[in-house]
Design a protein that fits this description.
Blueprint: H1 2-8, H2 14-35, E1 41-42, H3 45-72, H4 75-97, H5 100-120, H6 126-134, H7 136-143, H8 149-174, H9 179-198, E2 199-200, H10 204-228, H11 246-266
């Protein structure tokens, strides 16, 4: 039920709804401490400077993950271009020769694209994708007598580029950007929010206002940085900032259409009934 509700929330609002329970918990703690007169800290310029330093640190982390995110935005398009380039050559070989070997190679390129899409959603293992990329070698050998050698060399380059992209995506998904930076930013944020909870600010409604505003800013930034750090988090229900897979989806639809056309071209025409 929670998963279905998370999918119904618009992506641009998911971080907001993840932050709200944390803010509500802080406000509740603030009310309890105020009720029992346990607000022991006072706000001064040092505390304000600590908040500014923490925002600066998170701004540094945000700029770093944004650069990686912008780089990752090109990856689905590059993958799509490679798959379509491989399909172009296999389809042209099939047009010239009519060989079922070229059709089998084209079908393998389509299956590879579908496997990559499942892998992006963590429905397939990385070793399966790498094995299918390596299996292109057998198809290259099969169609080599049907085309020029320099075309096969170009296809091998595309195969190598695709393998590098898969390894790059795997590294981005499994590696955090400056783990020590995340650690100090999250711990500092926690300490500052606890400081606001224990701080005495008069009148009390101003204390609640500053607690809500500062906690919303710091927590939202923290969740946003964590989300941007994995631009390929399609398998995460709470993920809201992922690169678009539209180029890959369009390429897969075109590959499906090309395979259907070539299969129809290869199949023998229907034989009409003979006249008696």
């Amino acid at each position: 039920m929670i998963a279905a509700l998370a999918r119904r929330i618009p992506k641009e609002q998911r971080i907001f709804y993840r932050v709200l329970p944390c803010i509500a918990l802080l406000v509740l703690a603030k009310l309890v401490l105020h009720r029992f007169n346990l607000e022991l800290l006072s706000i001064n310029t040092i505390f304000s400077g600590l908040i500014g330093a923490n925002v600066f640190l998170m701004g540094f982390l945000l700029s770093g993950v944004l650069s990686d995110f912008k780089e990752s935005e090109r990856i689905p398009g590059e993958m799509s271009a490679i798959l379509l380039t491989l399909a172009d050559e296999m389809q042209s070989i099939h047009h010239r020769s009519g060989s079922p070997l070229a059709l089998a190679a084209l079908e393998h390129v389509r299956d590879l694209g579908l496997t990559i899409r499942r892998w992006l959603f963590k429905q397939e293992r990385s070793m399966v994708v790498m094995a299918q990329i390596a299996s292109l070698n057998a198809h290259f050998l099969a169609v080599e007598p049907l085309t020029q050698a320099n075309f096969i060399a170009r296809l091998k380059q595309e195969q190598s580029a695709l393998r590098k992209i898969i390894i790059r995506i795997h590294t981005i998904r499994e590696t955090d950007f400056i783990s020590s930076g995340y650690f100090i930013a999250s711990r500092t944020t926690l300490l500052l929010l606890l400081g606001l909870v224990f701080a005495r600010i008069e009148p009390f409604y101003e204390s609640l206002f500053f607690l809500v505003v500062v906690s919303f800013l710091l927590l939202f930034l923290m969740f946003l940085i964590r989300d941007l750090d994995n631009p390929f988090g399609y398998y995460e229900q709470a993920s809201s900032e992922d690169v678009s897979l539209k180029p890959l989806e369009d390429a897969l639809a075109e590959l499906q259409a090309r395979v259907a056309i070539e299969q129809q071209r290869l199949s023998p025409p229907d034989v009409g009934t003979s006249r008696g």
